[in-house]
Please model this.
Amino acid sequence: MVKYSLEQSDLTILTTGDLDDLTENEMNKELHKYQTEFGSDQIKVLTERVCAIKEAVLEAEEGDWVVITGQGHKIYQQSNELNTKTDQETIDYLNKLLSVEQSY
Model:
């Protein structure tokens, strides 16, 4: 998945999301391994999933695509800064935030 993302995008943001059977330290090591293996200039590692989604959405320019993979409709296992429970809630929240900012 990482290799395909790198072939198709200018930036790939990797995040821990739900850890399942891994510790946070193990997951971070794995993500940084991908960053080293595939090229650190095109990969950014952000440990909190919601922060990663927020950064991708807020940094996207008109005409850019933001593709969010991995969780789908699953409820987050960790709490987060936006207090959202799923990727869809996170995106809905950010869309509202952007609509308010653009109306000024």
